Amino acid sequence: MPGRLRDIVRVLGSLGIRVEKPNKGSHWKAIRNSDGKTYPLPCHNGEKSELDDKYLRGLCNCFGFDLTAFKKLL
Length: 74
Hints:
Blueprint: E1 3-4, H1 5-14, E2 17-20, E3 27-32, E4 38-42, E5 50-51, H2 53-63, H3 67-73
Antiparallel strand pairs: 1-5, 2-3, 3-4
């Protein structure tokens, strides 16, 4: 089940990760505040974009979250 970017931004914010809009291009950046670890999010339609499960899985692997628990927060 894909997730909308606006919902992902809300959940990541509650987990201490900020999401930055791109200055140019379409890839947003999820950045952990504590260590600066970054994961790119391809979002061609801005906050209305839906991210496929492969990107959610990569996001969870990058930041050490459980995918099923993350999806429940969406």
